[in-house]
From TrEMBL:
One of its GO terms (cellular component) is cytoplasm. One of its GO terms (molecular function) is protein-lysine N-methyltransferase activity. This is Uncharacterized protein. Coiled coil: none annotated. Pfam families: Methyltransf_23. The lineage of its organism: Bacteria, Bacillati, Bacillota, Clostridia, Lachnospirales. It comes from Anaerocolumna cellulosilytica. It comes from the Bacteria.
Amino acid sequence: MSAKAFIEIKNGDKVAIGGWNSNNYKGIKKLFDINGKDIDIVGGWKEAIDEKDLIDYKLVNESAADFFQKVPDGEQPQIVVFLTGSTNIIKDMENITKNEKNKIKVIFIISGYTNRVPLQEIKRVTILCRKLEIKIHTIDLKDVGYEIGYLLEDSRNMPWTIDTLDMDLLAYLQKNNLSSGSFLDLGTGSGTQAVKLFELGFDVTATDLVYAAFEETAKRNTNVHFLQDDILNTGLNKKFDYIFDRGCLHALGKPHYERYAEKVKSLLKEEGLLFLKYATNDNFHLTEDVLSYYYSENELNNFISRHFTIVEMKQSIFEEVEMKSIFSVLMKKATH
């Protein structure tokens, strides 16, 4: 994501959000904050408003036309952000700009992993903005970071979310007749893996750095212990029979790997098992900066061997995105 997109923004500029909800309000605030802009989000619009979407002192309406009609004098936004899943952006912009009191200077269109604004729609909006001398910027959700991404997109639309239990983990559990004991789902994301593990009979705790990632799943599945936690500075004080990591380690960055290993070992019971699924750096369709986060298979093997006993290790894939990976079953080394 280029910082150039935020050059025209001034501290104190007022922002309206198309596709509003309480989480993306927080996400947009963070997005501007990390780019050094202290903006004022006055509200937004959404076709079907839920009670949870309402925030004190923020104006929320069911359409762009209604929203801009009801914005008090002196509160008119200079910036409009259209979020993932926004529909009829061209219609909204026509309704906004036909009223001369609305002085929009910049719009942002955010494309999600699966909810992407059609290219034809972006072209039509671009032509309109050029005619009205409004700057337009498109931002890809994959470029905004993990925490902001979960605030701006439904976790069910994330490319790594699957509704079934990971195929490698399921195969190992079935082969070894494992269906009880305590399980930590580390970096749970939307929480689907944690729910499937509970359904198999395990006592499951699921953690993620971002509360919004699992918030809705946690409400529907109260038998799983969902917690916001950072593995590198974990507040957990329980030891587990099993830990499942499906993509957490490879997202941390290599400088944090050693601390990760020490923290995971502190959470495992003696001879407890870590199930680790890790994307390797031979996924050449990814950009160089992303691949720099990942080890090769040999590097991963060397790292693992310093901290764990390898029970099983095999080549695999993250099936939902067809990324090459290594699936490992690792035992905490006994202490004497």
